[in-house]
Every structure is written in structure tokens, then in C-alpha cells.
Amino acid sequence: MNLYIKKISFFLLAFTLALVSCDTEESFQITSPDPAFTLQEPGISSVFLNFNLPANNAFTITWNDELTGSSSYDVEMSLDDAFTAPVTLGTANTNSFSISVEDLNTAIRNAGAATFRDIAVYLRVKAGSVNSNSILYLVTTYPIENPQITSPDSTFEVVLSDITENETALSVEWIDPFTPEDPSTTVRYFVEAAAAGTDFASIREIGNTQELAFSLTHAELNDIAATLGLEPETAGTIDIRVRSVIEMTVGNLIRISDPITITLTTYETALPPTLWGVGAGMPDAGWGWASPIEFSLQGTVYSANVNLSPDNGGNFRFFTDSSLQWDSPSYNFTWYEDRGYTIDVNFVNANDNDSNFQFVGTAGFYNMKIDTASKTITLEEPVIGPTVSPWGIIGSGYNSWGAFEDAKFYSTDTPNVYVAYVSLVTGEIKFRANNDWNDPLGEFGDSGADGTLDAGGTNIAVTEGNYKITLNFNDNTYTIEEFSWGIVGSGFNNWGTDGPDAKFTYDYVTNTFKVGVKLIDGDIKFRANNDWNDPLGDFGGSGGTLVASGNNIAVTAGYYVITLDFENGLYSIVPSDVLGVIGSGFNNWGADGPDFSFTPLSNNIWVAEIVPLIDGEIKFRYNEDWNHPLGDFGDSSADGTLDAGGTNIAVTTGNYRIVLDLASSTYQINKVN
User: For residues 359 and 348, what is the distance between their CA atoms, to the nearest angstrom?
Assistant: First the structure.
């Protein structure tokens, strides 16, 4: 029974389904998804834009377009999901798009992003008027806005003064649109200067700070302007900019402001090699130029033994160039007072309409010092230094047996011991007193060639070179030893490979060695006898102090007088006008090489030793420049007188010692051999 019931039930169910199937046959369909325009979601939604890799891809997006059939797409970005202000990043004619780190960063910054980290950036693709869905990236950007100098502007002008050298002359202020969001991020600003109009080809860093301002004193700004080539006492311009360095773990991001151009009038800081005292207070000089008192510079100190008197008003002042005489720049009492000098009580302001010095102390001889470093002017007991002895060197090895004055010996700390520093040529020499074979003190040679001084003895054979010769009359001996100090370095002779060192000449008045020299940019040192291995060694230095085997001394191109003071362990490198020999008789009027430089010694004496001349003519000029303000010298009357712009001087072949006496406007050209 149950079996029949089950069969009947199955039949009825099948019949019912058949009826339903017949009723719905015409409306039954199998459907496909609607066409879509879909931008693919990124696998990584955070993007860090690395400024060190600006050309790298920031990201690549892809999309499927089953809707528009377009062959051109615009990719848009917005900082909000409503795309209130969409920015077009670019176009594509395929279903993908890439953008570089730099381009994306610029687009985000230009869109007005207020922060730099995790900026919400929405992207969509547009085909005509149809937009895809949008996707979201969180992007960390970097700043592109540069610092901007707000003060001063390019109308700024300042006259710098050494009277107010420690006061502020310039304050540079700027704004920076970038504010670090990470406390560990450091932003450092470098204030830079360059000669105006050079596009910062050569940069001088003024200073650096983490603040938004930086100030310079008159002295600091004057030094910067000088290194950039501005002439003292003349208005000139320099460019200034601010370079920002954002220090981050991935590297440093550099941004640079637009420059400004400022106008400066600088002051002279180079110390003249000599000051000349003139006036009634220095009776050996008086108010004239026949015998001005010479104050030589050693390191940063001018000094001289001087006779001072309160008589006739006791007034005087200092001049910087005896050749210009009254037209020379000069310094009076108020010049030093205004610059903060502490002045000895024996000097006061003369109040004589020129504010000269007035000596009000006890008449007598003093050692007067002007210390430009400590800014003091002091009087002390006179200094007893080397003096000229009666003894000299004569011979074919020096002056052709008396053709001109014998080489001088000078006193030493030991009585009856004398020293001479001399350049000799191959030949013979003897020692005699007072340039006279018949002087009662006699003349000496060496009959046994054993270093003994023999009265009337045999001539002493010598070879070409530079020597220190010592006479010791305590035991009647002498020594002749190779001796010279010279300048070596990339700043002069390519460390000795391009020629001999620049030789120093002894100045007995100051007990120093001096040389006039033309340098180039580089480093120098001082060494003995053109030899790094000489027992006398070599010297470097710093800040005017000589240091045995010390550091190289950096120099810049120019003309200098350099002084070595071994007694006090000092040196000075002073920019100066340097006279030289030029002519067809030496360097083909400059076409075949530099002029032969003179060395200025005390008392306005200039010397050039062993000058190789040929048949021709010569003149003397400053700094290898015919247009130099101090002019050039010849001899219009052929009488040994220096004439400004005078006639060429005829010379014949040979080696010469040339001496110029600018105080008396005379010269000597002495043929050695």
C-alpha cells in the first residue's frame, strides 16, 4: 500500500513542475555583469617620496574600462574625496599610468597641502565625462618652497668702519614655509656670499644657524667683502643668499633662497709695512722728509728707537708711504683714540687743528711701540740691537775688488764677533775695515786655509751661493757656512719644482729677514737653503707665530712683503707694493717672464741681489704694472737719480746688485763680475 502511495505522490509532483515550466518558458534568461570603469585598489596605500630619487616612479596605477571604449584618459588627484579642486596629473592612452617622485611631490605641494606627512591623496581616472571610482594613498612629501629673505633688500647700503668694528653692520632675516613635523628633523641655514653677478661660482660662507636670522659686525663683513675682491675705501656689491639644509635619515634636502645684492664700502685692514714719523716732537725728523723716523712692522707691532722732545710744540704724526710724502695716508692722535687704543700718558692730543700727537714727557731716546693687536701705544727703554761694524767683505766673489761698497758685517750679542749675510759669486774674498786697504784696523785673509784670520793673509776662495760669514776676533777665526731662508710652496714655486725659493734678505735695523714677493693662491712655508733636510729645518705657522715644521700657511695671489723675526718667533705677511726690474736688459719688457722683485729694508732702502742682466735697457716699476698709481722710475740724466717716469737705464751683460734709496731718490747698479 505504502509503495503505491509513494508512486502516486511522485507522479503528482512531476506533473506540477511540468505545468509551471510551461508557464515561464518565455521569460527565463541567463544574465552577464554590467560593463564597468574600475580603478584598481593599490596593494600598498602609503607612499614615501624620496627627494634623493626624484626621477623614480612614485607609483603606477591600472584600471579596467569595459564601459567607455576610450583610448585617452586623464588621471586626476584631489586632497579631498569629493574632488572639490581636482588636479590633472597627466594623460594615458593605455590602462596604466605612472608618475615620478618629483612630479607627484610638486603637484601635491602646489595643490596646497598643509602638512608633509601622510597626506590623503585621492586618485581617479577620467574618460571624457565618465569618472572611475577613486582610490586613496597616504603620501609623505618634501618641501619645494625655498626660504625667502625678508630683510634687507637690494637697496641696502652700508659704509663699514673700523671705529665701530664690533658693532652690527648687517642683519639678514628670512622666512621658511617649511616647519618640521618630526622633532628629530633639523633645519640648518647657511648664509652665503659671492661677488655680485657671478651666480655664486665662488662661495664664501658667512655663517650658519638654526634660527631665521644672522648678523655680522663691521669687521666680519669687511673681511668677507675683502675676500670677495672688493677694494677698500670704494663702494662695491656682493650677493647674499640663504641655503637651507634639512637633515633627515634618508639624506639632506637642500633649498636655496633667491639672492639679494647689497652695496658695501669697505675699509683697509692690511697693515702697511712701515710707518713714518714726522714732526717737531721727533726732532731727528722734524716737519720734513729728509730723515723721517721709520717704524718697521714685525708681526703686528710697529717699533723704533726714537728721540722725542716736547720742544717746539712736541707734535708729530705717522705717514704710511714716504714716497708720497704729504699726500700719503696718515694717522693722528684721534685716529688711534677712535679705534680704542690705550695710549701712553706721555702722549696727548695736540689740539692743533690736525689732532696730531703731542709728546709731553721728558726729552730723550725711547723705544716706541704701536701694537695693532693689543691696541696699545707704549714707550720703553731704547732697544740696543745689531749695529753696522767697520768690517766688510771685498773680492772678486763680491764686488770685483772694490768696484762698489764692501758687504757689511754687523755686531752680535758677543763682543768682537760680527756676522754678515751675503750672496757671493765664484771667486776670492778678504775682510777689511772701513772700505779701505790702509785702515789702521787692517785686512785679513787665511794663509793656511784653516779658518784662521791672518793679517794680510791669502785670499779666501769661495763658490757661488748664499752664506753667513762670522768673524771672531776673540780667537781670530772665521766661518763661512751656507745660509739662506726662502719661501717654498704651491703659492710660489710649486714646492720647489718650478725654481728656487724666494730668498730673504737680512735687515739689521729690525734684526729680521725680509723679502718682497709675488704670490699666487696656495700654501707656503719657510725653509733653509732650498732643502727640506737642512739642519736649520723649516717653519710653518699660524696667526703670525713661527712653528718649526708647522702647518702650511695659506696665501692668496698678490704682492707682499714677508718678514721673519726669529728672535721673537714671529712672521708677517703684509700686502704691499713691490718694485721690480723690467726691460730689454732683463725680461724683454715683461714678455719673457716676471719682473725681478726688490726687497724693501729699513730706511726706505730696496735691494735686488744677483740680477742677471744682458745688454739693453731697464726701468723700475711697481707690481709689474705700468699704470700703478706710484708710477715707475728711470734716470733722465744718467746721473744715478731716480726720476719718476724717467728715461730707460742702459745696462750691459753681467750679474748686478741693485740698490734703490727712495728717501734720497738715488740708485746704484753694481756689477758683480
Answer: 7
31 or 239: whose pLDDT is higher?
239
User: For the domain that residue 158 is a member of, what is the CATH number?
Assistant: 2.60.40.10
Question: Do 111 and 87 touch, CB atoms closer than 8 A?
Answer: yes
Domain boundary among 217, 235, 265: 265
> What is the Cα–Cα distance from 493 to 513, expressed in whole angstroms?
19
Closest to 162 in 3D by CA, of 343, 369, 337, 342: 337
**SS3 state of residue 110:** helix
- Beta-bridge partners for 97: 61
Mean pLDDT of 566-570: 91
Question: Does 369 lie in the same domain as 310?
Answer: yes
Q: Annotate 562-585 with DSSP letters as a single string.
A: EEEETTTTEEEEEE---EEEESTT
Distance between CA atoms of residues 331 and 320, nearest Å? 8
Residues 250 and 353 in one domain: no
Asked if residue 255 and residue 153 are part of one domain, the reply reads yes
Task: Provide the pairing of β-strand 119-127 with 130-131.
Answer: antiparallel
Radius of gyration of the chain from Cα atoms? 43
- Within this chain, do residues 350 and 294 fall inside the same structural domain, yes or no? yes
Q: Which domain holds residue 211?
A: 148-265
- Quickly tell me which residue has 704729504 as its cell: 326
The answer to whether residue 21 is domain-embedded is no
Separation CA 214–CA 171 (nearest Å): 6
Residues 253 and 306 in one domain: no
d(CA 140, CA 49): 6
pTM: 0.58
Q: Residues in the chain, how many? A: 673
The total number of structural domains that make up the chain: 6
Q: Which amino acid is at 23?
A: D
Q: Are residues 282 and 335 in the same domain?
A: yes
Q: In this structure, what CATH number is given to the domain that contains residue 622?
A: 2.60.40.3620
Distance CA 543, CA 557 (A): 19
The residue out of 575, 592, 623 marking a domain boundary is 575
The grid coordinates listed for 501 are 725659493
Q: Who has greater pLDDT, 59 or 249? A: 59
Could you tell me which of 418, 559, 569 has the C-alpha nearest to residue 502? 559
The pLDDT tens digits of the residues spanning 581-595 come to: 999 999 999 999 999
Helix (H) or strand (E) holding 77: strand 73-78
472, 451 contact by CB (below 8 A): no
The full DSSP string for 321-376 is -TTTGGGS-EE-HHHHHHTT-EE-TTEEE--SSS--EEE-S-SEEEEEEEETTTTE
| 279 is a domain residue | yes
Beta bridge partners of 479: 470
pLDDT bracket for residue 627 (50, 70, 90): very high
The answer to which of 223-237, 240-254, 327-341 has the lowest mean pLDDT is 240-254
Q: Do 395 and 478 reside in the same domain of the chain?
A: yes
Instruction: Please provide the distance, in angstroms rounded to a whole number, between the alpha carbons at the two ends of the chain.
Output: 160
Q: Which residue has the cell 729690525?
A: 510
Q: Can you state the percent helix, strand and coil of the chain, rounding each to 5?
A: 10, 45, 45
Looking up residue 563, the CATH number of its domain turns out to be 2.60.40
Q: pLDDT tens across 90-104, in order?
A: 999 999 999 999 999
Residue 144: pLDDT above 50?
yes
| Rounded mean pLDDT, 233-243 | 95
Range of weakest confidence among 7-16, 35-44, 343-352: 7-16
Shared domain for 157 and 247, answered yes or no, is: yes
Grid look-up 509532483 returns 13
